[in-house]
Write a structure and sequence with these properties.
The structure holds two protein chains of two kinds. By secondary structure, chain A is of the alpha/beta class. Chain A has two domains: 2-118, Response regulator (Rossmann fold, 3-Layer(aba) Sandwich); 134-196, no CATH class. Chain A has seven helices and seven strands, in the order βαβααβαβαβββαα. Chain A has helices at 9-15, 30-33, 39-55, 80-84, 95-104, 148-151, 178-188; strands spanning 2-6, 21-27, 61-67, 88-92, 110-112, 114-124, 127-132. In chain A, the strands form two sheets. In chain A, strands 3-2-4-5 form a four-stranded parallel sheet, sandwiched between helices. In chain A, strands 1-6-7 form a three-stranded antiparallel sheet. The two termini of chain A are 25 Å apart. By secondary structure, chain B is α/β, with parallel strands linked by helices. Chain B has a single domain (11-132), classed as Rossmann fold (3-Layer(aba) Sandwich), CATH 3.40.50. Chain B has helices spanning 20-29, 51-59, 80-98, 115-132; strands spanning 11-16, 38-43, 64-69, 105-109. In chain B, helix 1 (20-29) packs across helix 4 (115-132). Chain B is globular, with a radius of gyration of 14 Å. Chain B is built from four helices and four strands; from the N terminus they run βαβαβαβα. The mean pLDDT of chain B is 94. The chains are: A alpha/beta, B alpha/beta. Chains A and B meet through helix 3 of A and helix 2 and helix 3 of B. The complex binds iron/sulfur cluster (2 copies). One iron/sulfur cluster (SF4) binds at residues 152-154, 156, 159-161, 163-164, 169-171, 177-179 of chain A. The site of one iron/sulfur cluster has 15 residues of chain A, from helix 7.
Chain lengths: 216, 140
Amino acid sequence: MIVAKQKDLEVIVGMLQGYERILVLGCGTCTAICLTGGDREVGILASSLRLADKVSGKNRLLKEHTVERQCEWEFLDEINDQVKEVDAILSLGCGVGVQAISERFPDIPVLPGLDTLFMGMPQEESVWVERCSGCGNCILDKTAGICPVTRCTKGLLNGPCGGTNNGKCEVDPEKDCAWTLIYQRLEKQGKLELFDEYHPPRNFQAVVRPGRFTIK
Amino acid sequence: MTSENQFEPEIIAFSCHYCAYAAADLAGIMRLQYPTNIKLIKLPCSGTVDILHILNAFEQGADGVFVAGCLRGGCHFVEGNNRAERRIERAKDILDKVGLGKDRLEMFFMSSSEGPRFAEVAREMTDRIRKLGPSPIRGV
Ligand code: SF4
Ligand code: SF4
């Protein structure tokens, strides 16, 4: 899933200056799950904006809606009519969502209410962690299902480096050393021979930016 | 406003069925006096209160809101009052940022046997909101 955090209310208020009719649009998939962009957050943000408006004597139109997914045009059809009534859309989807809406409705400004952070998963209550960088050349089969590209602070393909310290990383002692984790899990799986394999330098051409994928 | 022109705040009290709501009931049975401007809303647990309920109350002109849950460690649903407390923290932050001020919202903890405590909380909140004055949103 895509993990994103909400921008500060002050920043959002600043972004919306000059717009009189705003659609606060949520996304019911990733950002709903990371509790920053679903139905509930749309309600809280729209209500906060209305309160801020009332305190400062403004009376703008703040519409609320949440689609199943912002990153697929099919799901955006249901807002066709609402879009005609507003002069800006504030998206609580990830950066892909913002761009998908903007491509679908190019005449209207689409503003990001979130800062998109990474691809990851929930680890415990209120904590999400990064797991994949979308490098286009997955080596998880060799690394016991632990991604060194993402989870090794230095992105080393042949670790650990000399800085590994009792399972922690020298760059940030709060973080686990990915290569220690890989070693331990390979050992548990009886596959330590994989640890001796040399990984040639990563092919940075695997995903040429901007990425494009066509299914054959 | 009363005849003496004293500002009578509208205060919404989201109260847990297992403690504060019963305490309010007890305050009545004990014939304890507390301000009449408190509007009670019964919740099955303080943990069911959502930030949205609180913001909606302010949008509709409430001058103050409080949430009252069980004593720490005494929640009927184990964690509900702690969850409510965390939401109140976030709601207070929002109230500050939108210009209403965090002091218009508070969380209290009490048991069902504390009728006098409920009356005291009601007086405390009423005094506090009187000092803050009417919500700038009233009548907008
Ligand atoms: S190696 Fe890591 S970054 Fe690359 S695709 Fe696999 S999980 Fe993602
Ligand atoms: S200590 Fe471990 S995680 Fe940190 S940079 Fe070195 S190999 Fe990577």
